[in-house]
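Subject: Protein record for review, amino acid sequence with backbone structure tokens
How to read it: Take the token row as a discrete description of the fold.
Enclosed: The protein record, placed directly beneath this head.
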Amino acid sequence: MHKPVETSHAAGAPTETPRLPLSRFKVIDLTLARAGPSCVRTLADWGADVIRVEPPPDDAEASELVGRRDGSDFQNLHRNKRAITLNLKSDEGREILMRLAEQADVIVENMRPGVTRRLGVDFEAVKKRNPRIVYGSISGFGQYGPYHARPSIDQIAQGMSGIMSVTGMPGQGPVRVGVAVTDIMAGAFLAQGILIALLDREVSGEGRWVQTSLIEAGINLLDFQATRWTMDKKVPPQEGNYHPTNVPMGLYPTADGFLNLSATGNKNFQTFCNLIGRAKMATDPRFASTVLRRRNKEALNELIATALRTKTSREWFEMMVEAGLPCGPVYNIKDVFADPQVEALRITRPVTHPRLGEIDLIAQACEITGFDRAIRSATPDLGEHNDEILQSLGYDAEAIAGMKAKRVI
């Protein structure tokens, strides 16, 4: 069956690419930092025509911006997009955005609540020009409530959502998770909400305002740790590298390092005890059931650690894999990408950048049969598509030159 093709708006010459699931949608990207861009990246990667809007640079910023754009983080966040510069504080720049919004399906922003209203580009203002718009917003604390106007970042949200209180070794004190989990998950939750709103629009015909926040993302990530309080009224403590409720499950020392393993459930626990030469542990009155193992987890973990120190991580790993027990090594980041399973999944994908050459970026984490998650184009330069986009709105060369002279673009 012949697949329809469309023009890809890559940095450099356009190329034809197979249809992607979101290729019928146009998205206006007003995002900053990480949470918003990670949301838009999902939409762009699956084919949405994304126009990233950024302010025109001051001359003093120009060289710094190029360096930052060429960095690995920026390149990974903003691939598969087109780029335009607009001064939204000017009437002309705001009008250009509204013309783009009239043609768009989605707008995404993560400014502090109230900023888009002051600029005149908030949900209500845009909806007057396009009643079908799906408008996505991420903030630190939400769009209402006593903290709504406060600034926030991932580190603040990790602390206030409780994530830092359950991370780290017992008694260590609060520990930050090593990645920006609330940023990344707020972006994922917003992308999910936007897609739900687009599905609803097919029935209702109405646009929606989709909202999330870093603190809501953090609380949602707590999952069962949160309901241990809301239902059980237990404040979860730090458990280090052991699972809070499942035993035995965690990171255990070996003769030459560490091994992550899980031997929960009576059948797996008995298999595990036999494997490590401690068959009597399976019938020990302290460990004879899931409830008892949980109650006596400190003693059990100590016995397991003693047993595992008799062989290397590789030796135990091979034995446990053969026995069908969940286990795995602890990698550094270099090790991750050298692993044959990671290589087989092809989660890193190359893209060619006009200055950097071929670079490897991280693809979307899910596969959809019939569609490729290849990265189609590198992150565009600041304002790279100004002329192309403005001409599509009906502006001629003279008008575009005038905008540049007035620093509208």
